[in-house]
Amino acid sequence: MTERMGLLSVNGGRARFTPRTLRAELRPAARRLAAVAVGFAGGWAVLYGALMPFGLGFVLGFAEDCFAPCAAGAALGVLLHSFGALSLRSICLLCALGAAVAVRWMGAKKLAVTALAGCGTLVGVALCFALGGNGGAELVFYSAADALLAAAMGLCLRRFAPEQPGAGMLLVGAAAAAALGSVQLWKLWPGVAVCAALELYLCCKGQAKAALAACAVLGAALCGADPAFAPAAAGLSCATAAAAVLAPGQRIETVAAYAGGCVTGALCVQPPGNAFQYLFNVCGALAVVSALPAGWLAPEPEEKAAPAPMDRPRFSAAATRLEQVAQSLSSLAETVNDVYDALPHRQEDFHWVIDNTYDTLCFNCGRRETCWKQEYAATMEGMEALRPLLENGGLEAAQLPGQLSRCIHPAALCAAAGRSFALYRSRKEARIHAEAMRTALTEQYSAVAEALGVLGEQLGRPGDPEPYKSGRVADLFTALGSPPQECAVTLDDLGRTHAAVTLPRTRFSAQELDALAGEVGRICRRTLETPQVLSCKGLTTLLFSEKPALRAVFGMAGAAARGSISGDAVQQFCSPAAAQMILCDGMGTGRPAAVDGNLAAELTARLLKAGFTAELAARLVNVALALKSEDESGATLDLISVDLYTGTARLFKAGAAPGFLVHGGRVRAVGDASLPVGILGGVNGQSRVVHLTAGDYAVLVSDGLLVDGPGWVAKQLELSAAAGEAPDKLAKTLVETARARAQKTGRPDDITAAVLRLEKCG
Predict the structure, then answer these.
(1) What CA–CA distance (Å, rounded) separates 262 from 60?
(2) How far is the first Cα of the chain from the last one, in angstroms, to the nearest whole number?
(3) Distance from C-alpha of 624 to C-alpha of 657, rounded to nearest angstrom
(4) Quick one: average pLDDT of 738-754?
(5) What are the residues facing 465 on neighbouring strands?
(6) Could you tell me if 43 and 75 are in contact, meaning their C-beta atoms sit under 8 angstroms apart?
(7) Would you say residue 5 has pLDDT above 60?
């Protein structure tokens, strides 16, 4: 068992990643590599023998994580295009790329600033060369044309991301086509072959509009790279139009229509002898596409769940509102504390009692001058001597100290001092109570604000939607006679599938829920758990979650110190993704301790089920115990939460006895000394993260079980784990043994053991 400080370790190695999580880890690197390749194509591509706008345009328009790799690729393409020879155009372009990258690195977000730096540098360097007698007006003219085209490309890419189908992706394709169009390997024209393969692929996928758009843009790019490709571009246009109009989405018919269009387009090639080279490249593209697996060329199904993308703005708006509420509550708590700290505080002590006694009695006495001026020291000494008498509950004339024996109103002095001391004590208690209420109020505001912030963060990232699966799940419920009002299938950050279906208020039996889990799992191609059912305001929501790799088996046993009422309370349950086990030990024994322990355990369980973290739940339970009654209340909080997908266990302890974890047959005690909840204004808790696997045990115990120390408990756990005992039997063995040991020592206390064992999910 190893604590997780970074990546989880399993048997001395790194934790296993699912294919989806591995793709998520590699996606940023893949994006940057793709940006380098696109930048190289843009730097290499030349239009009409003189214009080179693609590289700078991509640097201006690409996202923050891709513009620098793109600039590196573009610079490499510019250098290699002339085989390392630095022409004046190359120098101008390299300076422009450097200026654009520098400005974006310095934090420029707006396109206008970046374009002004990059395009201005391009034209400025060209002007410098022209004024120096190199290049002339032609260099300035071509540089200005490159600058205008690059700015237009940057604007297009800012509005249309190149990762999504649209104008941005077409620009990237045009750069690739132009770059390949300037390359010729014997009889192979890479530009023509790649364009033909891409257009045929889109036609086979049934994307006729995309194929026609690609045909127009890529054909123009080929012609711009080399006008000799104009007949080939015309032939590809004829072939794409034939395939897109006559047989889109039908593999064999599409290939036949495209081939026929290519033959017809060959008539455009002049002189006719060059048609064989054109057909040679087109036939190669046809062969490559025809050899692809059938699944790759299958048409994309129509996405029936069109409203799914609309959920993101709704979730984002809800997350923003929750975040605003959380900030408001947090700000309110801070403001109350700041105002309290800024206000002057009364520093009242026993001298206030003396002053109040003087004001109410001695001020109008005839001996005031003698007692409070001539014999001031003796009078103050006598008044100070009254303090222990007043604190003991009463003061009579016969108890007055000798320094006050000269008082002519002894009975009135005793009464005035008693009233002043009672008022002083009540004001002090009121201040303490107000301080406790302020602390509880601000602590509650802070805890709720943090909880709302966590919920807002969860709503802000609802997961990657899967519209196709969402539509099929919605069709399933519609076919069953219950059309859903909302249906969303998503993938979380770890690649786990979740489905949420909201229906009009409906009741389901256990058998129906199991059947629904099977059908929805078949659609999602995942094994799903029985859904969680939430009902509110005439609606029923079914929450489906992917079946975890582990399952939890619980067991517990306890014995009261005296009688049948124990101050220990246990809660054991499983949420959709985690197993939760809580043990609370109320202070003392008997009924008062049972009230505190059960209250703490019940509140913690409810908060955990609502989505609160252990730390937030502890803070709210701390406030509840502190304000429960005028008597001092407190309870230990011992909590373990185990992720049933990964085995990650999170432990939280506040004043609890050490717990025990059994991993690989070895026992380890966890937990240090701390204060229970309900004692202080805040919570002094400890958190820890460990990793468990199938066959491991987690054991929580109250302090009464450790009357003879933890040594014998560890030995018993090793024996029981080696024998594979059930959690119920193990808990009963621990409690009975601890009770026998406690009877020998004569120190009875409530004894409780709660056990959790992880097993592989069948």
Answers:
(1) 38
(2) 23
(3) 22
(4) 81
(5) 490
(6) yes
(7) no
Residue 43 · residue 82 · CB < 8 Å? no
3-state SS, residue 4 = coil
Beta strand 578-586 with 568-574 is antiparallel
What percent of the chain shows pLDDT beyond 90? 6
In contact, 756 and 572? CB cutoff 8 Å = yes
* pLDDT exceeds cutoff 60 at 309: no
Q: Between helices 167-181 and 136-159, what is the axis angle to 10°?
A: 140
Backbone dihedral region of 107: left (phi > 0), alpha (psi from -120 to 50 degrees) or beta?
Answer: left
Nearest to 78 by CA among 59, 97, 65: 97
| DSSP 3-state of 488 | strand
Of the candidates 359, 397, 371, the residue with the CA atom closest to the CA atom of residue 389:
397
363 CB-contact burial (10 Å; exposed 0-12 / middle 13-18 / buried 19+): exposed
pTM above 0.85, yes or no: no
Residue pair 51/175 in contact (Cβ under 8 Å)? The answer is: no
**DSSP of 16-71:** PPPHHHHHHHHHHHHHHHHHHHHHHHHHH--BTTTB--HHHHHHHHS-TTTHHHHH
290/197 Cα distance (integer angstroms): 10
- What is the rounded CA–CA span in Å between residue 93 and residue 59? 12
Report whether 754 contacts 688 (CB < 8 A).
Answer: no
Instruction: Give all strands (DSSP E) within 454-507, no chain letters.
Output: 464-465, 486-491, 497-504
The CA distance from 239 to 236, in Å, is 5
430 burial type by CB count under 10 A (0-12 exposed, 13-18 middle, 19+ buried):
exposed
Contacts by 283-286 with C-beta closer than 8 Å and gap 24+?
284/188, 284/193, 285/192, 285/193, 285/194, 285/196, 285/197, 285/200, 286/196, 286/200, 286/255, 286/258, 286/259, 286/262
CB atoms near residue 713 (< 10 Å):
22
List the Cα angle 527/529/530 in 5-degree steps: 130
DSSP letter for each residue of 554-568: EEEEEE-SSTT--SE
Distance CA 363, CA 416 (A): 12
Give the C-alpha distances (Å, rounded to integers) separating 268 from 192, 215, 228, 258.
Answer: 15, 16, 12, 16
**pLDDT value for 352:** 82
Of 209-213, 579-583, 625-629, the range with the lowest mean pLDDT is 625-629
**240 in Cβ contact with 258 (< 8 Å):** yes
**DSSP string of 315-379, one letter each residue:** HHHHHHHHHHHHHHHHHHHHHHHHHHHHS------HHHHHHHHHHHTGGG-TTHHIIIIITHHHH
- Confidence band, pLDDT 50/70/90 cuts, at residue 301: low
Cα Rg of the chain (Å, integer): 40
Yes or no: say if 541 and 484 are a contact pair by the CB < 8 Å rule: no
Tokens of 39: 């930048």
Token pair recorded at residue 259: 């081939």
Q: Strands across the sheet with 464-465, in order? A: 464-465, 486-491, 497-504, 539-545, 532-536
The residue type of 388 is P
8 Å CB contact between 428 and 420: no
Alpha-helix residue ranges (DSSP H) falling in 160-250: 167-181, 190-204, 208-225, 230-246
Strand partners, 584: 569, 637
* Lookup result for tokens 């001597």: 385
d(C-alpha 40, C-alpha 53), whole Å: 12
Distances (CA, A) of 534 to 473, 539, 544, 574: 18, 8, 11, 16
